[in-house]
Each structure stands twice: as C-alpha cells, then as structure tokens.
Write a structure and sequence with these properties.
Shape: globular
Helix content: 10-25%
Strand content: 35-45%
Number of helices: 4
Largest sheet: 7 strands, mixed
Radius of gyration: 16 Å
Order of helices and strands: EEHEEEEHEEEHH
Number of strands: 9
C-alpha cells in the first residue's frame, strides 16, 4: 500500500496521509517530482520523453515527462526524484545534477480503464543535462514502453496543438525553454 502525505496548496504536508488509490478516487492533494532530461544536439535543445505503459492507471500509452513520480509519505522531493530516475530509467545521479525550474499545482479529472481519476498534485519540476544516447538508459518495462529524444521546440508545438499522444503540461516545457537559454 502506497501512502502519500496530504499537502496544502503550497505543497506543505498537513501531518495526515492517504493511500494512493483513495487519493486519486477522491481528489486529495499530494506531492510529485518531475525530472526532465535535456541535451543539446546540433545547437538544438532536446528533451527525453517516455511513452507510458498501456497498463498505467493514468494516461496509458501517452508520451510524458522524462521521469516522474509520487512522493511517498515522509520523503522529500529530491529523494523521490533520484529514486524515480533510478527505477524508471536506470540512472544514478547526484542531487547536485538536478536544477529546480519551478513548481505547480495540478488538477485533473478524467477516466482511465473505466475508472474515474481525480488527481490533485503539488509538483516540483527539475531539469538535468544528460548528453548521452538512448543506449545509456534502461527503461523500466512495467512503467515505460519507449523513450526517445525530441526537440524541445517540436515538443512545445505538439503539446500546444493538443496532440493527444502527449500528456505533458506546456507550462513545464516553457520552464525548460527558459532554463536552457
């Protein structure tokens, strides 16, 4: 059973916890950490996107953030970000490699696999330069069906056009654009 800290609108734990499934059924605010991997190829910034497994409880089969995850009760953002990078992509990095780009609150109401999904998150968004090939990444098959590098500007264009293959918030891409200048 995964437990999350319930948080206020600023991402501060309230002292209460909630089980993951119940949080998503009831729309209870919890924390997540998002990490974007960036590289420069031919003077263009690229972002690593992952294609979510078809078995994921939300946005199955969609392209998403390089690495993202919920923060278990009692843990912090950096600790969780590093754990997710290791679990999802097989990467072991130091906290100093992560650069905080911003934070956001998210509210999503949808239905996946016939189950209502009410997600309320407070998220910290990190970026990390990673100028390596896809061969250095080991995607977790239960979570990820594919990883690929895509141009940041192209990703922004597709997300702004509401391309349904992507479940990415354009706000995060704008933060990356500013970070990568």
């Amino acid at each position: 059973m995964e437990l999350f800290d319930i948080v206020d609108e600023y991402g501060n734990p309230t002292g209460e916890t909630v089980e993951r499934t119940y949080a998503h059924q009831s729309g209870i605010r919890h924390r997540t950490a998002h990490v974007w991997l960036l590289r420069t190829t031919n003077d263009k910034v690229e972002v690593l996107v992952q294609k979510r497994s078809d078995d994921k409880d939300s946005f199955p089969g969609c392209y998403d953030i390089s690495s993202a995850g919920h923060i278990p009760a009692g843990q912090d953002y950096i600790e969780s970000a590093l754990r997710e990078l290791h679990e999802e992509l097989g990467l072991d990095v130091s906290p100093e490699q992560l650069h905080l780009c911003g934070s956001k609150s998210l509210a999503t109401d949808d239905c996946f696999h016939g189950i209502p999904f009410h997600d309320r998150q407070f998220t910290r968004i990190y970026a990390m330069w990673y100028d390596r090939s896809l061969g250095s990444i080991t995607p977790q098959p239960e979570e990820i069906s594919e990883v690929r590098w895509t141009g940041l500007d192209e990703c922004i264009r597709l997300v702004e056009a509401n391309d349904k293959r992507f479940c990415i918030d354009a706000y995060e891409l704008y933060l990356l654009k500013e970070f990568s200048k």
